[in-house]
Design goal:
Structural class: mainly alpha
Order of helices and strands: HHH
Shape: elongated
Number of helices: 3
Distance between the termini: 38 Å
Number of strands: 0
Largest sheet: none
Strand content: under 5%
């Protein structure tokens, strides 16, 4: 942290303006992989609860998680996660890098201007 910066000047959700495209790609891929890895068991439960005509009826998400993990094993909740992760990494990398690049263009090279609410449209 620079010596002249106060705590209010630090935006913990913002990467520095000097961050390269590669770093944006890595950050996006890591965020996407983490998000899909953490939410995958909930997605499994959601999909099973949406199946019409299933012989198993779940009363809620917690009960479904408990039932699936005890009857079929914990690994069942993560079966197939690698295919989702392999798709999520590149997709989120491109999405995040495109978002950051577009934000920088719209802010006239001041990447943090949009996040700080200092963005102004200049009429010609």
């Amino acid at each position: 942290m620079p010596a002249n910066a106060s705590l209010e000047d630090i935006d913990y959700e913002e990467l520095p303006a000097s961050t390269t495209l590669g770093m944006h790609l890595i950050a996006g891929a890591a965020a996407g992989i983490m998000e899909h890895s953490v939410m995958y068991p909930i997605d499994i439960v959601k999909t099973r609860m949406q199946v019409v005509g299933s012989s198993v009826a779940y009363n809620g998400v917690v009960q479904a998680l408990r039932s699936i993990s005890t009857t079929e094993g914990m690994r069942t909740l993560y079966r197939g996660v690698m295919s989702v992760v392999l798709g999520a990494g590149p997709a989120h990398a491109v999405y995040f890098a495109t978002y950051e690049h577009t934000k920088k263009i719209l802010a006239g090279g001041q990447a943090n201007a949009l996040a700080a609410g200092k963005f102004q449209i200049h009429k010609q």
